[in-house]
Amino acid sequence: MIKLQKLPEVVDYLYKFQSELGFVHMHLALPREENKHLYIEKTKPGGKLTFAQNQLIENRVFTEQIKISIELPDGSIWVAVPMFTKGKLLGAIILSFNQVAPIAETTAWLEQHSDGLALAVEHTLHCEILEKQLREKSMQLVVMNALTSEKDYGQMFLTITAAINNMINCDLLTIPAFSPKTGFVLSGYNAMRQNGGFTLISREEMLEMLGLDLETYRQSALAQLEIYSKPHIFTAEEYSELSRKLIVSNRFATVMGVKEALFVPIALPNDAFATLIVCSKKENSFFSKDLRILIELAKQITHQIGRLLTFEQKEVLEIKLRRENTLLIQELNQEQAFSEIIGRSPAIKKVLENVHRVAPTDSTVLLQGETGTGKELIARAIHNMSNRKNRPLIKVNCAALPAQLIESELFGHEKGAFTGATERRIGKFELANGGTIFLDEIGELPLELQSKLLRVLQEYEIERVGGKQTIQLDIRVIAATNRNLYQEAILDKFRMDLYYRISTFPFVLPPLRERREDIPLLVRSFIEKYSRKIGKGIEGVTPQMMDFLLHHSWPGNIRELEHVIEQAVILASGPQLDIVPAFTASASMATQKDIPRSLPVYLPQESANLTDIEDGFLESQRQHILKILEETGGRIRGRFGAAQRLGLKPTTLEARMKKLGIRKNFSSE
């Protein structure tokens, strides 16, 4: 018996007789699952082993189980000699000859030695089966070790992918999940062969590569759900047919070059299931044994895969719940929000007119005003009167954000982006997508973050900290400050370009001392609020207290007035509120220097329409640029040029000067 361990050794053995047998090429054809045949070919002894396809005679030799000889138009002759062992057809040796070769002698030699060759082939097949069984057990062991010991879910998935690839050569592995309760969820666990190894591809990266949004992916999959729920091998022909009716498969084929795929469902709790999809960019890559291996593997890893997908979907559901909760709160407070703005004075009426004008637009609004003037209420009113009223309004107090975490809070971060980033976090901007973001105390942002915020406001896109995926935004921005940002920009404490960007529509909220006729209305509202809360029957205030309230300077504005009324209600012993001693003592110490100076207003105070407001704003820009050009002697570029002073690129400044009618000699046309 010829003792050989691998099929290539059988081929090499036969090639030792090539010179005396006179064949040109030799194929070793073996029947495999689903009528597929494995062809092992060598064009010369010691040459590279390749897999060839020759369907000219294999069907006949495997069907008729006799020697077959066919002459081709090119003059070559192909002969197939079957091999039997224990009366069972094992395979065939297929040889090609030219016309002058000793064909009869060669085929006679093969028939004489076919039994010995069949035993050698059978032995090598048994060796390969044992080897594959060992590799399969090894794969299962590697997978189970990863599932039980690996804490990083992404690394766990890559380990599973590499183990599967050792048994089933593949180019892409993905696990979409399905649930009757939550619908289809595209998994963030996708591994793709790149540079000789496998790389983890995030949910967003996968969608971007496919050119699909999540909803399109979900609807496409749900339309053909039965495809994902049954184990199946999609051969090249079947996958091509699938690509014609399933957009997801079409994109995998056209974008990633997938030609064949294995689908193996994995049962999950609550009638949910996931599908392990293994893809190849080559034809004839998968056999029935591969499907069997994955089905057995799926039974073993059901629990762990369920944990992996649950971990992934937890974050998605949390985001969804936060957004739904935000929307619910907005709907409940929609009517109340505008009614909270109390007042009938001309000053507050002017503010409300501006709110009505700007709310339906998507223009960026800058609310300027002293502390306690109600900037958040105005921001909420603008949002609730806009087309985004049914979307989130996300508030960000820039002054309260820890310096080292500001970027993460605003833009979010990926898992592992920095020490302590144990999971992905969605930032405020992303949460506000589709709605409005209110940046309170924007003047407190560090300068280094202002440049990143400027990019967001210009491009309406962000990147999470540690991420590579660009996320497009559809948001409306409302900013607020109690600082003089224009003066801060001149002193290089705030970026001038950011100031211009956020002040598309600026207006000032009047301090309480400029709307004293609203004080009685505010007092009545606060008395009702705190009487009900504390449980006292307060009817009003004494004439002496009202007179004091009307003449106080109110440096803390409405917030200060509210606190005074709350304190008076707590101390009240009768139906009338009287002056609180602690308040009058502190108030008597207040002088004019304690009153904050009014913020400058860079637009006509009596403007009747948006055109007037815009003209006033452009005039403010023109005057400031002329002032800076005068100070720099007309120099635009360079270290001490006007562009650097204004925080602009020289080309941007020149374009703005042209728009504003400012010549290079800095005179105004």
From TrEMBL:
Domain of life: Bacteria
Gene3D superfamilies: 1.10.8.60, 3.30.450.40, Homeodomain-like, P-loop containing nucleotide triphosphate hydrolases
Pfam families in UniProt: AAA_lid_14, Sigma54_activat
Record-annotated Sigma-54 factor interaction domain positions: 341-570
Entry-linked SMART domains: AAA (SM00382)
SUPFAM superfamilies according to UniProt: GAF domain-like (SSF55781), Homeodomain-like (SSF46689), P-loop containing nucleoside triphosphate hydrolases (SSF52540)
Keywords for this protein: ATP-binding, DNA-binding, Nucleotide-binding, Transcription, Transcription regulation
GO terms (BP aspect): regulation of DNA-templated transcription
GO MF annotation terms: ATP binding; DNA binding
Name of the protein this chain belongs to: Sigma 54-interacting transcriptional regulator
